[in-house]
């Protein structure tokens, strides 16, 4: 009997609805593994987050990154709590992993789903939206530098310093061109703001021109971030793959998900494309304390994130190319996505999407669908 | 006979389609003055821009700001040319006026017009969109600081430094609360990104809380810039007045205009609310060299900018409050806006809005409409 791959996953549910949606995702993935029998998977719970912070004075232990490095990937819930300032919780956990672990590519697939409508009349219903947004995830506006002087004085000054490096820009640019190359349309849009920001943004423009030379089969264009929002609204069909800075793509990816009608189910991957470090997969939604504990959270973003994770760890065996086939993991991811589509199309949804189900109802429907499909 | 006000305006058409739309606007405003006879107006042409740069090595003369200060207001076209890097042309002219002249409030009215549809299904057609976006226009991400080290080396680093001051934040916050207070709904949304940016953005949050105390009749809420794009798409009706940083509102205001279906006609005001310096009014659209010289540019953004200008100089006599009545100027602005609405509703539009007219055709229709209305 040929051996099947075994995936070791760190689960970090963290705060708010994080634990609810991550446990739903683990259940679904376990059913997937049990029915397909093409891989085995093991989740290890890491209890980091605000409760940990209140007990230990920090969001994760000092050796957290070393511990994470012993896994094939991480599945992350959401961090943030009403009684801790957001910048403390986020820099305590999520941003303390993304940058230091060099998870420099944040990938956000954006697509329309059956049963979920785009609110845009400019979207051709027959085609829908199908974009891949690539966000630089390790530097730029999120370098964490800057400070405040003369606290609370009328002459107080505060700075935010965005730091861009040629190395950092080049690696994300190369990743984005490869991602575009792997898609049927092979088109990349590079987003900057080089008319008003004269240093890092001009460097982005220059690096784009240089890296593009290595991808003669990829067509590409350049947009200013403000004009890009207009293009997303007015000409959604002209867009395929997009790359930009940490802040710009944070904004554009939320907008994109909203335009696809799928903000509640959007997934994101924090990748180290060199595969030296395990990548981290997370729903785009936040900790949503207003609905925490009610069992009504939409688990689909966590399912989709788990699918991206399976695809990535599957490809781990065959290389970092986004376009390559990844064996069991990728195949399982495809099944998972197909089941999400079917469950959505059947109208089995939580209230945020206009449905009547709770977290359990959607999870159960997913498990049934997986068993039927297998 | 009572004396009527006289307005002295600097016209800076600058580059691309700038001269075409500004001369159309001047024509329309002159017809307005001639027919209403409630004010007189005089435009002085300042030939600054890329042609000036090519002759003199700078975009405007060294005493440009002093010369501008002799006028009641400025009407600006657009700056930028294909053969000059954008950051040179923009920092040479527009950004060299906005910051140094302390035109710290950039106001962008966003609304739907008869005959121009919002591409959003979430917009109630009976209500349309009616927002006011207030952008901090003198500091923040556009402070112009930062640099590049080790040019063209693999270890090159580039920085963009955003500088925020308590003074700068407080004055724009106060302006925005006043703008909200003057509107029927009296609601303000303060946009920041204080979960990932820990210095200037947290200062913004703090100042908002303090300034809000002086406006007990204004309701307000706080949004992260990424989440704000989602709200604009999904719940447009929940928005009234919005304030944010130079970069954030640059992005959100383009998005807003696109969501209202009116990006081609959007206007913006660069205001010094203290009225120590003359304010500058400009269409949001760029220099559009692809259509320059063809006579097809949409002049409506310039008309709308001229209306905002008349409103502002009119109010100059009665104080800086956005909500106050401004006599002849404000009344003329109202007529101008009504005529824009009628011309749009009649389908007299340029090709960018799906119409069949050229610049002259729309301008002529506007002049006719003004004569009919008066
Ligand atoms: C949670 C927050 C720090 C984060 C970000 O701004 O990066 C979020 O908005 C995201 O998009 O991942
Ligand atoms: C022309 C450019 C510098 C400008 C900006 O980014 O501020 C424009 O986009 C605007 O919105 O006024």
Automatic annotation (TrEMBL), chains A, B:
Pfam families: Iso_dh (PF00180)
Molecular-function annotations in GO: NAD binding; oxidoreductase activity, acting on the CH-OH group of donors, NAD or NADP as acceptor
Domain of life: Eukaryota
Gene3D superfamilies: Isopropylmalate Dehydrogenase
Classification via InterPro entries: ICDH/IPMDH, IsoPropMal-DH-like_dom, TTC_DH
Annotated ranges, domain Isopropylmalate dehydrogenase-like: 8-366
NCBIfam families: TTC (TIGR02089)
Stated family: Belongs to the isocitrate and isopropylmalate dehydrogenases family.
Protein's name according to its UniProt entry: Tartrate dehydrogenase
């Amino acid at each position: 009997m040929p051996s099947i791959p075994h995936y070791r996953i760190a689960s970090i549910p963290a705060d708010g609805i994080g634990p609810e949606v991550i446990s739903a995702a683990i259940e679904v993935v376990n059913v997937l593994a049990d029915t397909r029998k093409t891989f085995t998977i093991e989740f290890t719970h890491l209890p980091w987050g605000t409760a940990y912070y209140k007990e230990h004075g920090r969001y994760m232990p000092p050796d957290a990154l070393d511990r994470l490095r012993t896994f094939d990937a991480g599945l992350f819930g959401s961090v943030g709590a009403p009684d801790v300032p957001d910048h403390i919780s986020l820099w305590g956990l999520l941003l303390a992993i993304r940058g230091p672990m060099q998870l420099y590519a944040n990938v956000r697939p954006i697509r329309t789903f059956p049963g979920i409508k785009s609110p845009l009349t400019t979207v051709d219903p027959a085609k829908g939206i199908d974009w891949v947004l690539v966000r630089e995830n390790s530097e730029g506006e999120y370098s964490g530098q800057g400070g405040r002087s003369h606290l609370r004085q009328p002459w107080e000054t505060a700075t935010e310093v965005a730091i861009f490096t040629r190395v950092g820009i080049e690696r994300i640019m190369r990743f984005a061109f490869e991602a575009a190359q792997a898609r049927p349309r092979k088109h990349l849009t590079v987003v900057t703001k080089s008319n008003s920001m004269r240093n890092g943004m001009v460097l982005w423009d220059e690096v784009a021109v240089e890296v593009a030379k290595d991808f003669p089969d990829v067509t590409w264009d350049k947009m200013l971030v403000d004009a890009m929002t207009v293009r997303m609204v007015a000409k959604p069909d002209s867009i395929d793959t997009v790359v930009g800075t940490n802040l710009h793509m944070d904004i554009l990816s939320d907008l994109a998900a909203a335009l696809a009608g799928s903000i509640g189910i959007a997934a994101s991957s924090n990748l180290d494309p060199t595969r030296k470090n395990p990548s981290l997969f997370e729903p785009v939604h936040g900790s949503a304390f207003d609905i925490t504990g009610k069992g009504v959270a939409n688990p689909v973003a966590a399912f989709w994130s788990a699918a991206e994770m399976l695809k990535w760890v599957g490809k781990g065996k065959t290389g970092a190319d986004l376009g390559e086939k990844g064996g069991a993991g990728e195949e399982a991811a495809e099944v998972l996505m197909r089941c999400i589509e079917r469950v959505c199309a059947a109208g089995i949804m939580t209230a945020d999407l206009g449905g009547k189900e709770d977290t359990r109802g959607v999870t159960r429907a997913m498990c049934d669908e997986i068993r039927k499909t297998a």
